[in-house]
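Sequence in, structure out.
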Amino acid sequence: MAVYKIFPEKSATLYSYYPTLNTGLDEILELSTFESIDSTNEVSRILIKFPSSEISGTFADKVKTASFDCYLKLYLANATSIPLNYKIFSHPLASDWNMGTGRLANLPITTDGASWGYTQESGSGVWFSPGSFPSGQTGSYSGSNAGGGLWYTASAYESTQSFTFISTKDIELKVTNAISASYTNVIANNGFILKHSSSLEFTTASKFELKYFSDTTHTIYPPCLEIRWNDFSYNVGSQSTMDSDLYYASLGNNKNSYQQDSIQRFRVNVRAKYPPRTFQTSSFSYALVNYALPTASYWSIKDLDTEEIVVDYDTTYTKISCDPSGSYFDVYMNGLEPERYYKLLFKSVLSNGEAIVFDENYYFKVVR
């Protein structure tokens, strides 16, 4: 199974209160509803775009005809005054935009890129004229401050994620339909806009801040487009399949360090803990017999220092394959931060429903 991560080529935050402010170089992306110093209800929205060439290359060279899904992921940096329940929306943008070189804290403000009012720079390329949206496109604003993005209206392209008080606040939006449409040239790839629901924007109902790491962050949490596809193959050949917890698994070809652009096929050797006692004159040994993991076997990757799950078990997209040589899976190192250590974990679900996790300190490092 395969998981491939693509990182943004540009991102920015749009602030309704600052119609010409560009924030293209900020390390933080903000998705907030707030009250201004003038006691007006204001909002911020996020723009983010991923390179077309890398998306098309991934589908042409890796995904090919396999079934797939795409997820837009952003990692929370800070949150204040969040309500018990809220919802975030994403739409594919209908207009191109310039990232710019501004920051929220710049004084005087930088206006050389996308802002609430403009797609390019202050006075150049308005998002739309109020009340005159092109067919199949829309935007939203409050009062006389027009702007805040222009996006495609088709419901198939809209993605939502609901949050409760107990859910993680990281964003993971399923954007498969929008990516498929841009890859096949049904719509242009101008990136995505992320916003709150209309019931929360520009109202007094709720004021709260959500701040996420941007692509210019100096942390290990940049946003990404995660493409997952199904390339599961299962052919055990003459091997028997592991059928109980009386086995142990090991990596047969872990080189311990990998270049960040490499692809590694990991082989999982499965041995019986208590091979049968035999009396023989040949060199054959049951202790060396390799078994296949069950079809319901999955891999996961954890950051060794933070112990955060980087790639979680997925019953579709991280299944462990098998060929006559044994069980295996592929890892694309590009989605892992370089100069960090990671741990591999495996999980197998037996026919009786018992789940076995193999956590035997299988470490590796990604290097530049």
